[in-house]
Amino acid sequence: MSAARRWGRRRLLPAAGDPLFVYGTLQYPEVLNELIGRTPELEPAQVSGRRAAALPDRVYPGLVTATGAVTHGFLLRGLTAGEWQVLDAFEDDEYDLTPVSAHAGECEVYAWTYTWKAEALEQDWSVPVFTADHLPYYAAKCAAWRRELVLLTGTV
Asked: What is the pLDDT of residues 90-99, one digit of tens each?
């Protein structure tokens, strides 16, 4: 979907400052810098009862329910309302923005995350494979997407 069409999507977004649990491509500073122009604070965290699944014909994962699974990722803190809009516009329509209980150190934190609602593969997504084989191309794709968004909407 184009950046402009996603930008026009109407969804109630979390409040500025609400944490976002990221487990896939949004955990990479290279991707965040291209999308929102900075890397917010990344705090190691995990979510139980879900796994970061590989997806058919995609290099990014989807978070799906899985009994006994634990997904490691990060909490993004300090997102502005505009950054929430950009990240939400970027995410595929097959994601739902869902509240979750994440564990960061000894603390339980209520956060938002993008959960996958379409077909997922049996295997988990691989951070090392994505990093080695896809990250530079993916970051460049994010930069192009952001340029399209700026051109079509006039936002920065």
From this structure: 998 999 999 9
Among 140, 28, 14, residue whose Cα is nearest residue 82: 14
Q: Compute the distance between CA of residue 96 and CA of residue 88 in angstroms, rounded to an integer.
A: 10
Q: Give the separation between CA 11 and CA 13, rounded to whole angstroms.
A: 6
Q: Answer whether 0.85 is exceeded by the pTM.
A: yes
- Catalytic residue ranges: 91
Of the candidates 109, 110, 142, 104, which has an alpha carbon nearest to the alpha carbon of residue 24?
142
- Residue 122: which residues within 8 A CB-CB, separation 6 or more? none
The residue behind tokens 């184009």 is: 2
**Degrees to nearest 5, angle at CA 116 with 110 and 60:** 105
Question: What would the pLDDT profile of 33-60 be if each residue is shown by its tens digit?
Answer: 999 999 998 999 999 999 999 999 999 9
Is 59:130 a contact under the CB 8 Å cutoff?
yes
Q: Say whether 64 sits in a helix, a strand or coil.
A: strand
- The HSE-up count of residue 9 (CA atoms within 13 Å, CB side) is 23
